[in-house]
């Protein structure tokens, strides 16, 4: 993840040092778990570690070089009391149904399904168009940062549990018979196929021979 999330940020800084352009970078709300510590350097939390490093580099550039830096952080769905289900309204419950239908339509359009057989966990999403509009509105109304980098956060709206999505697929004979693929790769292809949801956060756990591998963002 270093070339995409770290080296690219360094290149942006080099470009902006020579002009007055401000820097806008999307990171990850998952870095907040390392507010009081450093992420592991062994690659076990590579995505989050690379986003953490990118934010530190941006903050240093803002303070030492006087660059105008704006960090945009997608966040998980806000929960009350840490429980499985937040205080969802009927409107949000309806949105969950719509998102599930959209995912099933993407499965049909792709002719491939995510294989959740060895996975558990969840994915938090929000409509791409809403998040994009919020970012554009921020950019239009932005003010110069007085000190350091400015951080703006965007909350996820819908939490999709792996077992719920998997049961929808496996309960449909047509979908069950489609070619299966790793869920992480499937979601990457689903974005290209027109998925209208932005992944705001995730915690996918892959169970392999008694061990757990966590993909977090």
From TrEMBL:
Organism this protein belongs to: Sclerotinia nivalis
- Thioester reductase (TE) domain sequence ranges: 4-83
- What name goes with this protein? Thioester reductase (TE) domain-containing protein
Annotated transmembrane regions: none
User: What InterPro entries would the database entry show?
Assistant: FAR_NAD-bd, NAD(P)-bd_dom_sf
